[in-house]
Amino acid sequence: MLASRNDRSARRPLSRVLVVDDEADIRELIDLTLSRMGLAAECVGSVGEAKAALAAGSFDLCLTDMRLPDGEGLEIVRHVTERYAQTPIAVITAFGSTENAVAALKAGAFDYLAKPVGLEQLRALVKSALRLPGVAPEPNALLALTGESSCMQQVRAMIEKLARSQAPIYISGESGSGKELAARLVHMRSARANAAFVPVNCGAIPENLMESEFFGYRKGAFTGADNDREGFFQAATGGTLFLDEVADLPLPMQVKLLRAIQEKRVRKVGSVAEEAVDVRIMCATHRNLRECVEQGRFRQDLYYRLNVIELHMPPLRERQEDIPALVDSLLQKLAGEPPLQLSAAAVQALQHYAFPGNVRELENILERATALSAGQVIDVADLQLAPEDFPGGSEATRGSESLDDYLNRLERQAILEALQKTDGNRTAAARLLGVTFRSMRYRLERLSIE
After folding, report:
1. SS3 for 86?
2. What is the reported pLDDT for 100?
3. In this predicted structure, what is the pLDDT of residue 187?
4. What is the mean pLDDT of residues 5-12?
5. Which of 3, 27, 102, 290 fits a disulfide with 43 by CB distance 3.0 to 4.6 angstroms?
6. How far apart are CA 119 and CA 34, in angstroms?
7. Are 164 and 208 contained in the same domain?
8. Rounded CA separation 412/445 (Å)
C-alpha cells in the first residue's frame, strides 16, 4: 500500500501541447510524435477552438498552422504572447513562406516549422521549447553589462525577452560597444545555454575556405582534406552561431547561408546528402546593414532573414553616467585587490571624452593607466587621452584652451567642489576625491588654489 502511494506521488503530469491545424493528417502526425515523446497533445482546427482551449486549461507549448479556416495563425501568436506569455508558441508555415515565418517571429513566436513537417526538426523544436521555463540564469550574468543608464536597462530587458525566443537576432552598434557580450548573454539565458556558443568573425575567413568552414567537408573533397571535418553549423548544433561582421560575407556565400538558415539543413563540401542542423543564428556588424543592402553589397532576402529582431548596443558616449561604474568594474578586473582608483578629475575627463572605441577603448585606456600610474590613484595625465577625441575635436567644449588647460580646469573644479562640500577641510576633501593628503596638497599648490 505504501509503495502504491509512493508510485502515485512520483508521477508527474504530462507536459501539454496545443496543436492548431485544420488538416487532420498533420494533427494526427504531430499527436503521434508528441505521444511517443511522453507528451499530451490537444488538437483543434481553428482560431476559435484554439482560444477556447487556451481559456479552459494551461499548456506548456502551442503549435499553430498559419492558415486556418476562420483566421490567421498570427492572431493566435499575438493572443498567446499577450495573454499567456509563459507559453512558448511556434508556427507551421507552407514551404517557402519565409515572409510568414519572419512575421510570426516578430509577433513573438518561439520558432517555426516548414511543411512538410520533418519529425526530426519537430522533436528538436519541442525539446528546446519545453526546456525554456526551467532555464536558470548564470549567477550575476547580466551584471556583465555594467551600468544603470536608461538605455542599458532597456538592453537588459530586451535580452531577457529575446532569450525566450529562437528568432534570429541582428545586434547593431559601433565597434567595442559589447555586441558579442550581448549575444553571449542571450545564449546564456536561453534554453540553449548548455550547448555551444560558436562565434565566427566573418571578415577573417578567406573566401575560398568559407563554404568548408561553415558547412564542413568530407574526406577527399579537395586536396588536403584527409579526414571528415565538421563546420561551424555542426559545431553549434543545439546552440547558437554568432556571425560577427556579417556584412563582410561575399555575395556567393550569402546565398549559401540564406539557404542553410531557411531550410535548417547543410551539405558538407564533397557530400551528396544534406543533414539537419538545429542552430540559432545571431549576427552583428559595426556597419549599417541596410545601407549595405541599398549599395548592393548585401542580399536583401538575407537581410530580412537575419534582421527579424534588432538589438541595438548604445555607444559609450550616450551613457556617460555609466562610466564611473564601468571604471570600478574594469579596474577590479585589471588591478585586482586592492584596486586602483581614479581621481575625480580623471573621472570627469573620461566623462567628457568621446570614446570612438567605446567600452573596449575604455578598457585599453585603464590598462595603460594602471601600468603608468606610480601610486594607487590614477590621474588625468596617466590616461593619455587624445585631444582630437573630445567631442568636436581638439577645440571641442574647451574653446581655445589647450588640452592641459582644459584638464586643469576640470581638476580645479572637482577640488573646489570637494572643498565646498567639506567646509574647506582639506583632509576630508582629499578623502572624498580618493587621493592622499600629500597628493591633495601638491594639487592645491600646482593649481594655485588658496
Report:
1. coil
2. 76
3. 93
4. 43
5. 27
6. 10
7. yes
8. 11
Instruction: Count the alpha carbons within 13 Å of 302 in the hemisphere toward its beta carbon.
Output: 27
> Would you put residue 92 in left (φ > 0), alpha (ψ -120 to 50) or beta?
beta
User: Are both 411 and 441 inside the same structural domain?
Assistant: yes
| Residue 419: count of CB within 10 angstroms of its CB | 20
Q: Summarize pLDDT for 49-59 with one digit per residue, the tens.
A: 999 999 988 89
pTM of structure: 0.69
Find where cell 577590479 sits.
Answer: 332
Residue 256's Cα: distance from chain center in Å? 24
What is the three-class DSSP state of 43?
Answer: strand
Mean per-residue pLDDT, 58-70:
91
Give the mean model confidence (pLDDT) for residues 91-104.
75
| CATH assignment at residue 184 | 3.40.50.300
Q: CA 207, CA 225: separation in Å to the nearest integer?
A: 17
How far is residue 157's CA from residue 301's CA, in Å, rounded to a whole number? 29
| H or E, element range at 152 | helix 150-162
Work out the pLDDT band at 76, boundaries 50, 70, 90: very high
Rounded (10°) CA dihedral 51, 53, 57, 59: -80
In-domain check, residue 139:
no
Domain that holds residue 214: 144-314
Between CA 123 and CA 403 the distance in angstroms is 63
Same domain, 160 and 256: yes
Residue 238 to residue 191: CA distance in whole angstroms: 9
- 401 and 390 both lie in a single domain: yes
Distances in Å between the Cα of 434 and the Cα atoms of 325, 339, 340, 342, 418 are 15, 12, 10, 7, 11
- Choose the final residue of a domain: 314, 330, 355: 314
| Residue 8 covered by a domain | no
